[in-house]
Amino acid sequence: MSLLEVNSVTKKFGGLVAINDVSLNIDEGEIVGLIGPNGAGKTTMFNLITGFYRPDSGSIKFMGEDITGRKPSEICKKGIARTFQLIKPFLNMTVFDNILCGALCRTNSVDVAKKEALKIIEWMGIDKKRNALTRSLTLAERKLVEVGRALATKPKLLLLDEVAAGLNPVETEETIKLIRKLRDTGITLCLVEHVMKAVMTVSDRIIVLDHGSKIAEGTPKEVSQNTNVIEAYLGRSYA
Amino acid sequence: MKIIKEYITGGLKPKSINLYLFAAFITILSLIPVWTSDPTILNVFIYTFLFAFYAASWSILGKYAGQISIGHSVYFGLGAYTTVLLYVHYNVSPWLGMFVGGLLAAMVAMLLGLPCFRLRGLFYIFATLAFAEVVRIIFLHPLRDLSGGAEGIPFTIGYTSPYYFQFVEKWPYYYIALTMMILLIAGLQKMEKSRLGYYLKAICEDEDAAEAIGINVLKYKLIAAGISGFLTAIAGTFYVQFLCYIGVNDVFGIMRSIEPVIISWVGGSGVFGPILGSFIITPITEFLVLTLGMTTAYGLHMILYGAILIIIVLFMPEGVIKPLSQKFYIPLLKKLSEEYRRV
Questions:
Q1: Mean pLDDT over residues A16-40, rounded?
Q2: pLDDT tens per residue across span B212-250
Q3: At what angle do helices B14-35 and B171-192 cross, to 10 degrees?
Q4: What is the phi/psi pair of residue A12, to 5°?
Q5: Helical H segments across B91-159, by residue range
Q6: Interface of B with A (CB under 8 A)
Q7: What is the pLDDT of residue B39?
Q8: Which residues from A are below 8 Å from B206, CB to CB?
Q9: Do the Cβ atoms of A2 and A164 come closer than 8 Å?
Q10: Half-sphere exposure of B276 (CA within 13 A, CB side)
């Protein structure tokens, strides 16, 4: 049984078919990369899995349980956490409070959540910025806060939406390390990513979307040689 | 705050200085009726405490959860009318009626929240405003026989009776209002450090992000609305018990909805924002009404409200409390703890 099963899901916005009959599986312990040109439906897929959108047809199962159409907060409690492409950290809170809010997902006690938040801050190596206002941080640091906050909800599956976008090469390197470190703690990961270096090096498996449909799936090497994928990215003459 | 904490390695902590200063503030306030029994002065203070309480109640929904309601007159009026009608018709003690009114207001706030919390920004604001006006007009015309309409219902009993929440002297009202304000400050401070407090702040910051980390946004907004509505109803009850008169346009009027917004905005956020706001705004209003009278220049205090608001928005968009604490309070804390260390 896969950790996450998406069965022929379709999502339309008016006349636009954003996701067209897509099925995919994510197994426990994997790092799956979800790629595709702009407008392929990657973020829509994330929004469907995490309950921000309700699919028009099809179903989504997490650990064998049907979660189609559940509220995002319920889905988070079930063990799927996410970050946003346009990151949404709580800017007027400190780094510590951001992560504390995430940790409160699993406990009613603020004291327990505080301990949990401290652990995560240490683990992620952002101890120096603990009491800084998130507003005062750089983009890379804000992204770390966003990941830390999602991590604090103790997810089994973590969906990262373009965590490497807009980062410099050193920061990208750090992010790749972080993703591997996350996997080593037993969290399954799914990445939407445009930075090919990042997604190709860390992913065990890649799923390619184009115009809302799944056009390829396989190891990074297989996918990069697939003619459909090359066509989607570069046009027919290169395929 | 962190700088100070690092600055002080031992001795008096800012936290305890805060507590001492707050205690001193309370002591001074509670001695005022001993010093004077001038009804005008006591009046100003009673209204200041009451509107501090009202604005702080509003801020639970309006500031902490970020849902700017311009319809709190509904809860203010419902609380007030429930208490008065229960007393006038069934002789129920206002102390009990207050809680019935509070629960009713909380229920209405939550029921209104169910559709309205799906709206965001300006649409939510307009929905609350429209609802408040509808309720006012319903009380003014269809429910005229019950509510007394625009003329309202005077219900003074003329002698002091703690059971009926009526006093001839001003000082009992003074201490009740002061106690209400202090209890709410303590409660809010506790809430700020609780799960509810963190969740409301998260919702205020970003609803989608809050939902994504497992916060049931609608549920927590409804909780905030319920608490806010309940406390507002209690403020309404006190207000009419103090006046011994209730009128539709007085308790349900649009100014009742706007007052807590302005007070909270002028003061700023946090527990002490609305309190500070009331200590600035309410005395000015009372002074204007007293000196100019209700007839010669009615509405002048509204012009002043507008002027103050413009100044605040332009120069202190986060309220008076922020520059005040940065310029005066934090240096004061620093100095106090420094001196303590030297001793």
A1: 92
A2: 999 999 999 999 999 999 999 999 999 999 998 999 999
A3: 170
A4: -115, 145
A5: 94-116, 122-140, 144-147
A6: 2, 193-195, 198-199, 201-202, 205-206, 208-217
A7: 87
A8: 88, 90
A9: no
A10: 18
- Determine the average pLDDT of the residues in A115-122: 95
Percent of chain A having pLDDT more than 70? 100
Q: Give the CATH number, domain containing residue B142.
A: 1.10.3470
Q: Are strands A205-210 and A31-35 parallel, antiparallel or unpaired?
A: parallel
Taking a C-beta distance cutoff of 8 angstroms, is the pair B53, B79 a contact? Answer: no
Determine the average pLDDT of the residues in A201-229.
Answer: 91
**A153 at the B interface (CB within 8 A)?**
yes
| Chain A residues with beta carbon closer than 8 angstroms to that of B202 | 90, 93, 101
pLDDT number for residue B85: 94
Measure in Å the smallest separation between the Cα of A160 and chain B Cα atoms. 12
What's the gap in Å between the CA of B212 and the closest CA on chain A? 6
Answer whether residue A189 shows pLDDT above 60: yes
The reply to whether residue A101 touches residue B193, judged by beta carbons under 8 angstroms, is no
pLDDT of residue B160: 84
Q: Do A105 and B216 touch (CB under 8 A)?
A: no
Cα B45 to its chain centre, rounded Å, is: 14
Q: How far apart are CA A95 and CA A127, in angstroms?
A: 9
Chain B interface mutation, best of A73, A88, A147, A154, highest count of B Cβ atoms under 10 Å: A73
Complex prediction ipTM: 0.92
At A4, is the secondary structure helix, strand, or coil? strand
Among A101, A109, A116, A154, pick the best mutation site for testing chain B contact (most B Cβ within 10 A).
A101
Cite the beta strand spans of chain B per DSSP E. 153-154, 245-246
How many CB pairs lie under 8 A apart between chains A and B? 74
Tens of pLDDT, residues A63-91: 999 999 899 999 999 999 999 999 999 99
- Full residue range of the structural domain in which residue B246 is found: 2-342
C-alpha A19/C-alpha B180 separation (Å) is 56
How far is the CA of A126 from the CAs of A131, B3, B66, in angstroms?
Answer: 10, 19, 29
Question: Contacts of residue A149 in chain B, CB cutoff 8 Å?
Answer: 209, 213
pLDDT of residue B296: 60
pLDDT under 50: residue ranges of chain B = 3, 6, 343
Does the CA dihedral A44-A45-A49-A50 come out positive or negative?
Answer: negative
Amino acid at B287: F
Residues with Cβ within 8 Å of A53's Cβ and at least 6 positions away in sequence, in order, are: A11, A44, A47
User: What pLDDT score does A1 carry?
Assistant: 72
| Total number of domains in chain B | 1
- The amino acid present at A181, given as its one-letter code, is K
At residue B128's C-alpha, the angle toward residues B123 and B131, to 5°, is 120
**Which helix (H) or strand (E) is B36 found in, with range?**
none
